[in-house]
Amino acid sequence: MRRRHLSEKSLAVPAFEFNQLQSSTVLLLLLAFYGGTFLISTRIGRRKENVDGYMTSSSQVGFGVSAASMTATWIWAASFYAAATSGYKYGISGPIHYGLWGALMILFIYPFGRRFRALAPEAHTLAEIMHARHGRSSQLILAGSNIVGSVISLMANFTAAGALVAMLSPLDFVHGVLIAGIGTLSYTLWSGFRASLLTDVVQVGAMMGSAALIIPLVFFSAGGTEIFTQGWERISADQSTFFSKQAFLEQGAPYFVAVLAYAIGNQTIAQRLFAVREDLIKPTFLAATVSYGATVIGLGMIGVFALMIGMSPADGDHNNLIPQMASTYLSPFVVGIFFIMVIGSLSSTADSDLSALSSIMMTDIYGKNLARGKVRPATMLWVGRITMIVATTAGLIFASFRIDILDLLVFVGALWGSIVFPVIASVYWNKVTNRAFTVAVAVSLVFFIVARFQLLPIEGALAILLEVFAALGAGVVLGLMAFGFFGKRTGLTVGVVAALGLVVPMLGFLRDYPVLLASLNAYGVSTLVCSALSIGNHKPFDFNLIAKRVTAFQDDEPGTVAAASVSDR
C-alpha cells in the first residue's frame, strides 16, 4: 500500500491521507475479476448459436437470475458515484432523492412491461414493437435514442473505472478505462446477452455483500456518531433536513422525471423484460426495487459522511468521493473488496449496454431495415459482435472527456422524456399514428433543448408558455404512474388534477430551475402534440397485428430463419 497526502486549504478542515494499492495488486485484482467472468461465460455453449438466445435468452429466464440481473444492471458505478455526489452536494436528503426515485422507477416498469409482453411475446427490442405498431420512422427514433443512451452509459462506466484506478493505484485514468473496456468486451462478445445474464448473478452478489460490509466500516472508521455531532456545523440548514427544497428541485424532481424515461426507453431494461418468464415479471421487478433502493441509498450516505468530516473531492472531481473515502478509512484488504465491488457494478452495466446495442443493431437496423426480408442468422450474429467492438471503442474515446456523471444522467434521462408518452400511448390507444409519434418527439426535443440550454431568454411570454407546458408534463408523469397501477380512469383523474393544480405555483417560479423546466417540457409538449395529431384518426389500429409481425428470427435448428420474423407487414 502507498499513502497519498490530500491537503486542504482551509485551516478549519482537516488534512487527509488515503491509501493506494500497489499497481501489481490492482492488475491482479482486475485479472482475477475479468478472468473469472470470462471463464463463467465459457459455460455457455457455442456450437448451437441462436440469434434469439443471443438477444433474449429464449424468454424463459427464472426469478433468481432475472432479479439479480435487473438489480446488477440498475446498480451501476454511476449509481455509486452519483448518489455520493448528491449526498455531498445536498446533504442527508441527497441519497434519498437519488436512490428512492430510482427504486420506484424500477417498480413503475412492470405494469407497462406486462403490456409489452402481452402484445409481443417474442420481441427483442421495444423499437421492434414500434416498428410493428407504426413503421420505420418511429422505430428508428426509439432505436436511435437507445444507441445514444447506451454509448453514453458505456462512457460513464468506463469513466468510473478510470477514476477508481487512478485514485486507488499509481496507474493512470486511461489504464483503468482501457482495462475495463477490454475486459468487459472479452466475456460479452461471443455469447451476448446470455453472458451478461450469467455473470450478473455473481456480480450482484459481490456488490451487495461488499456494500453491506463497506458502509458501516467507513462510518465507524470515520468517527461513528461523532460524524454527525461534530460535523453538523459544517453543513447548511438545507443540507441538514430530509425535506430539502433545494435538493428536491435541483436533484430529486429532475432525477425522478429522468429515471421514468430510462424505465420506458432503455433497451437494457427492456431486454431483461423480454427475457424473464412472463409470469415472473412482477416479483422480479419488486425484488430489484428493494435491492436497488437499499444499496444505493446506503452508498450515497458515504457522500454525506465526506461532507460532514470536511473532505474535499480530490482534483475537484466529485467522482472521486467514494474511492477517496474508502481508501482513507478502510484497511488494505477491504479496499481491495471495495475495488472489486465498483468494478463489478460498472462491468455489469457495461455488458448490458453492449448486449442492448447489439440487439438494436441486429433487430432494428439489420433485421428490419437492411436485410430487406432476407435475414441470415449468421450475418445477424456478426452484426451484433461487430457492434460490441465499435461501441466499446466509442465508449473508451468518450470516457477521456471525464464528464460529471450526475449531470450526464439527468440530461440523458430528461432527453428521453420526449418518447415516454408516445411509446406508452402507442401500446394502449389505437388512434396514435406514426406521424403523431414522430412529430411529437421532434417538437418536444426542440422545446427541451431551448429550455435546457436557454437558447432564448427564458422570460416574458416564453417563460410563461414553458411553465404551463411543464405543469402539463408534471401531470403526465403522475398520471402515467397512476394509470400503470390503477387503470385509465384513475390515471386521467390524477393527471388532469395535478396539471391544473400545478400551473399557478409554477408560474414565475420554475424558470429559475432550467433542468426541471426542460425535463417536464419534454413530457408535456410530446403529450400535447401526440394527442392532438391522433385524436382525429378514424382508422384504429388492431393490436393483434403486433404479435403476428414480431416473432422469432430463428427456429430451433441453427441456420433456419423463422418465416414470420422477416415479414414487415
Automatic annotation (TrEMBL):
Q: Name one GO biological process term.
A: sodium ion transport
Pfam families recorded: SSF (PF00474)
Q: What GO cellular component entries does it have? A: plasma membrane
Q: How does it sit in the membrane?
A: Multi-pass membrane protein
Q: Which UniProt keywords apply?
A: Cell membrane, Ion transport, Membrane, Sodium, Sodium transport, Symport, Transmembrane, Transmembrane helix, Transport
Its annotated compartments are:
Cell membrane
Q: What is this protein called?
A: Sodium:solute symporter family protein
Q: What is the lineage of its organism?
A: Bacteria, Pseudomonadati, Pseudomonadota, Gammaproteobacteria, Lysobacterales
